[in-house]
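Team,

Forwarding the record for the chain on the shared tracking sheet. I've put the sequence and predicted structure together so nobody has to dig through attachments.
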Amino acid sequence: MLVELKNGETYNGHLVNCDNWMNIHLRDVICTSRDGDRFWRMPECFIRGSVVKYLRIPDEVIEMVKEEAAVKPRVRPQAPGARKRAPAGPPAGKKPKPAGKK
């Protein structure tokens, strides 16, 4: 995938990981200077999400994600120690009031 930074540099490599803040870890990276006349090869790099201008992701990766999302139902993970919500209705031990009476 290709990552362009706000300063004009580009990083082209294989995506290893990306988090919720768009911090990106790439392997086998080729970095290009903002004017395009210098190149660097790096085994890996980490890019802070706040400096990313845009990403170019191959179409086949987009299709893989679409297929994977269609196959797996999305389940929200529960935080450790979180309590389950009580079902809606009257509090435990109380009877609901009949409708129309106060």
